[in-house]
Design goal:
Pfam families: Epimerase. Keywords: Oxidoreductase. Belongs to the NAD(P)-dependent epimerase/dehydratase family. Dihydroflavonol-4-reductase subfamily. About 40% of the residues lie in helices and about 15% in strands. By secondary structure, the chain is an alpha/beta fold. Helix 4 packs parallel to helix 6. About 45% of the residues are buried.
């Protein structure tokens, strides 16, 4: 696409979104990001300037609540040059009191509001990319079955009622139903734009900008930060899954609108397995000062087993055409940023 292409990024201050904004600007796209307040927008702009990004091609628009009907209407009315819409705004939290209000409604209604606004006020928009999750693809918890495998055609079968049982199921439901809302909208309305969806695993990696408030870290970064707070005699807590680096997720969003063969596709962003012991092993090996501070645990439990029989994202890798960042670099860069000068 032309370097003059204007790309809209909803939820512009999110963990993934900030990396997307940086990568778009590096590729000489014009970027408009939605933020929840002027203060957040100015902070994002200041962060970009602090890393020597020219903000000539960066603007922010305030969208206080994506779940309110018509949330994106004014933005699209005011910016008729937007031709790509990246919808990354969706809650990623498990600290909620009302699953429907805090997780399901913002994800589902936010997606519907974005697509309706594009159809009404963005006829020039040709490419739409939505950030979903492998939570919309896989089963887990009491719904998991032995020997299951997943690919780009798989769907989490969770029901709306089941998603109300816990924040974890609520998150899975929010991703599943928001994504289904998008595909059903496209199928029913036959809009002018094509749709691609990014389904990342657990997203590790550094923040897009220096950390100023560790209490405000995103979920995956908090997971690593908590491991770094362990004492020498503490047990290494259980925890495992599949991961991808945030920089690869951002890159995939751009490929998803640039490449014709990504249109109408779900893209599974999954590099491989991780577990907490493996993260501790990498950290102790890479940072000698931490080797004496962190618990040793049981290093052998950090061995990572092949998950290719459970996950197949070969179709995604063929479309994306780039190598994913490995667990060691992802963890190393995260730890280095979180601890900074204390290392």
């Amino acid at each position: 696409m032309s370097s003059l292409t204007t790309v809209f990024v909803s939820g512009g201050t999110g963990f993934i979104a900030q990396h997307i904004v940086k990568q778009l600007l590096k590729r000489h796209y014009r970027v408009i990001a939605s933020v929840r307040s002027r203060a957040k927008g100015e902070k994002l702009r200041d962060n970009l300037q602090s890393e020597n990004f020219s903000t000539t091609n960066f603007l922010f628009e305030i969208v206080p609540d994506i779940g309110i009907k018509g949330a994106f209407d004014d933005v699209l009315k005011a910016n008729s040059d937007i031709s790509v819409f990246l919808h990354t705004a969706s809650p990623v939290t498990f600290d909620v009191t009302d699953i429907k209000k805090d997780l399901l409604d913002p994800a589902i209604e936010g997606t519907r509001n974005a697509l309706e606004a594009i159809s009404k006020y963005g006829p020039q928009i040709k490419r739409v990319v939505i950030t979903s999750s492998i939570a919309a693809i896989q089963t887990f918890g009491r719904f998991a079955k032995e020997g299951e495998s997943f690919d780009e055609n798989s769907w989490n079968p969770i029901s709306y009622e089941e998603s109300l049982e816990s924040p974890m199921y609520g998150y899975a439901g929010s991703k599943t139903f928001a994504e289904k809302t998008a595909w059903e909208y496209v199928s029913k309305n036959k809009p002018n734009f094509t749709l691609s969806v990014i389904n990342p695993a657990m997203v590790f990696g550094p923040q897009a900008f220096p950390i100023t408030n560790k209490a405000a870290l995103n979920h995956s970064s908090q997971a690593i930060s908590k491991l770094l707070e362990l004492k020498p005699n503490d047990p290494v807590p259980e925890g495992k899954g599949a991961f991808v680096d945030v920089r690869d997720v951002a890159h995939a969003h751009i490929v998803a609108f640039e490449r014709d063969d990504a249109q109408g596709k779900r893209l599974i962003l999954l590099t491989g397995p991780y577990n907490n012991q493996a993260i501790v092993n990498i950290t102790r090996e890479d940072f000698p000062t931490l080797d004496l501070i962190l618990p040793r645990g049981d290093p052998e439990k950090g061995e990572l087993h092949d998950i290719s029989k459970r996950w197949n994202n070969e179709a995604t890798k063929k479309i994306l055409g780039f190598e994913f960042i490995g667990l060691e670099k992802s963890v190393h860069d995260s730890v280095q940023q979180i601890l900074g000068d204390s290392l």
